[in-house]
Amino acid sequence: MQHPHDPADSTELAPYGELVFAEIVDEDEPGPQHETQDPPAGERVRRSWAAARRVAHCARTAAAAIVGQIHPGLRNALSAARHWLRVGYMSDDEIRRRIVNRPLEADRARREEALTAVRRLENKLQRRLEDAAAYGLEVPEQQAIRDLSRELRRRRNGLNTLQSVPFTPEQPTPEQIRRARSLMALGRFSALLPVLGAAGIVAASIPSALLAAAPVFAAAGWWLTHHPLELAERPVPEDLLLPELDPPAPKAPETSGNAPADETEEDLTPFPIAQAATSGEAGEALRRALVHEGQDIGQVTDVTQEPWGWSARVSFKSGTPDDLNKDDTYKGLITLLRLRRNGLLIEGDPDAGEACTIRMMQRSPFSPDLVGDVPYRAPLSMSILDPADYGVSMDAKPLAFALAGLMLLMVADSGAGKSGVMLAMAEVVTACQDAVAFNLDPVGTGVGDLGEAITLTACMDDEKIVASLQFLLTLCSARARLRARYGWGNKWRVSPEHPAIVVFVDEWAQLSAQAKTLLIRLLLLGRKEAIWVIGGSQFGTRDWLGEAIGPKLSGKLLGACRRVDVTELLGGGALAEGYRADLLRAATHTEVNDAGQLYAQGLPGMPDRPVRYQVREVTAQYAARIGAERAAAGRPDLTFTLDEAGLLDAWHELLELLDSGAAAAEQGAVESLPGIVRVLREAFTLEHDPAYLTYDQLHAYLRRHDADRWGRWDDKSDIDRLRELGKALRRELDASQVELSSERIRELDGSPRGLYLSALKEAIEALS
């Protein structure tokens, strides 16, 4: 009989679980042995399925958690890829700028190509002229130079025409912008297809690669889930933020003049000149700014786009154009038009008192292309009576005038380029066959960069300066007597036998009282006797010059200076007329600013206009080179005219006075130099200071100084000897910490290496 709760008879479980019956057997006692039996097969299957369901549930839970962490990131990555493919990060304005930038770059390339062609021809012509000066000309060479000159003029005319036409871009339509975006997207998709195809081939060929890539995708998805990408339009890149690529200004009336009677207040709202894309819009911007500042204008005409901005002619119904130069009005216009601090120039019309020309500068008016390089002038190749080209005006007209008969004063602050302008004029004088240059400077070296091309130098010594001025005054009296004897009329006839004397006096204000008195007397007497003075000073008022002589001089140049200097030299109304030299900024150690820019009055052949000029810079190195060249070619000789005047002995006494201190100072300076530099300087001195010496020439002096050291390579060939000499000389200079390098002497056949005197002098000055 079975137990009622026997599990074999019932599938129901007890309320508190399953009852298990067991028999306790004492193994120490003998008894029957029972074998262990396996559970039934059905039970094993049920248990396996239960375990599988639990594993699947855990896997499903883990997979859901992993997918929840990486799925948003992968979806974000897909959105980013779609954003990149569609070029969604580029704004319509950036695409528009890129479309407009292509013709702009092509236009710049055309201009650069034309400029390069002009410069190449200029260099070629300059080399021909140098050869002509050195070796003379035959008939074929003369014809070649004439052909080159004609070709250069043609190229220059073409370049000027090209530069006079401003770049005016054609703005793309919205449809063209959309088409450009679609083409970029298509190009990117086409480039992506090979990459996707290669990835599919790898996955099909090597399935295990998917398993290797899975952790990478999972990590990237997890990262992007927690650091989603911001899919937005980026700012326009800096290289596309050019004024030429700016969006067109809001449409404004194409004609400028009287405002319509029904014009609203909103229509008169000023807007910056940079938003103007056409001449009509630029004229409207100027008209609104003038009306806003209370000006009663008639019309704005002749609006022209310039390389540096815009110019326009404005006529007034009432008032005067001079009102625009008043401080409040001037600054107000600068602000409304969003111009540079000194970017507004007003030039009154001398023939129409109610009109003026207004120039609005958005950038510097003097680009290197416009200013150009200093033209080469061969020794004794011109006359002081001929006009010389010194630079350009901001409207691209040449600054060209003759120095003959010119008593000139330049006033400019330190750093405004005063000495550079005087050096440019001295460079012209030293190229003349009928003029010589004198150099006076109480505190500096004046135009001394031209070296031996200067006939007389008296610097940093009041006694020498006074003696030089006294000699010039004596010469004035002597020449006046000679004029009367020769019947030359009321002015000295300049010729190579009777050369003019151009006296450069820098830092006028620093002269002693006696020197100032003598200089002012020379200014009053020297013009008729072809003794002309080019003076420079940081200040132009009477208390600095010694007398109110400035306004009486025929020529005036003004760089960056004070207002009182402008009105002192040009008159009380000069500022209102537009001579705003007070707005120019002098150079600093790190910024060029407006150095070399100036206003001018009284220059022969040049109109008196309140327009800025830029003088080409004559560097110290270039001045030293051409100075040595001109000294070697010979300066105009004063001996004949001084002998006629009976002043030849006085002239030699003056030269002895000037040379005495200079020789002693130079000798002391040479003795304090490092040994190798002293030997090199003595070599040039013994050769009478030529423009250059080759290694072969220098070797003789070095061998004479120390035969054991510098004669070690005499048994070698010339090429090896000079190569070893160059290496040893380089080591000596480096050991002495001297900044001096050898150069190819282009003036000689084969261009052998050697040293230029100008470079040696610069190295010596750096050591002092």
Provide key terms for this protein.
ten-stranded mixed sheet, disordered N terminus, 768 residues, alpha/beta
Brief characterization of the structure:
It contains 22 helices and 17 strands. The chain has helices at 41-85, 92-135, 139-164, 174-205, 208-226, 279-292, 327-337, 368-371, 418-429, 462-486, 513-525, 542-545, 563-570, 574-577, 620-633, 639-645, 648-671, 675-686, 695-705, 707-710, 718-735, 757-767; strands spanning 297-306, 309-316, 344-348, 355-361, 388-393, 398-401, 408-411, 435-441, 456-459, 500-505, 531-537, 555-558, 597-601, 613-615, 692-694, 743-744, 753-756.
Could you characterize what this model shows?
- With 768 residues, the chain is α/β, with parallel strands linked by helices.
- It is 47% helix and 12% strand.
- It is built from 22 helices and 17 strands.
- The strands form three sheets. The protein has a ten-stranded mixed β-sheet with strand order 6-5-14-13-12-7-11-10-8-9, with helices on both faces. It has a four-stranded antiparallel β-sheet with strand order 1-2-4-3, covered by helices on one side.
- Helix 2 packs across helix 4.
Strand-residue proportion = 5-15%
- What distance separates the N and C termini? 133 Å
Question: Whole-number radius of gyration?
Answer: 44 Å
Main beta-sheet annotation: 10 strands, mixed
Look at the helices and sheets and give the structural class.
Answer: alpha/beta
Instruction: Figure out the total of helices.
Output: 22
* Estimated helix fraction: 40-55%
Shape type: extended
- The whole-number mean of residue pLDDT values reads 82
The counted number of beta strands is 17
Strand order of the largest sheet: 6-5-14-13-12-7-11-10-8-9
Point out poorly predicted stretches: 1-22, 252-266
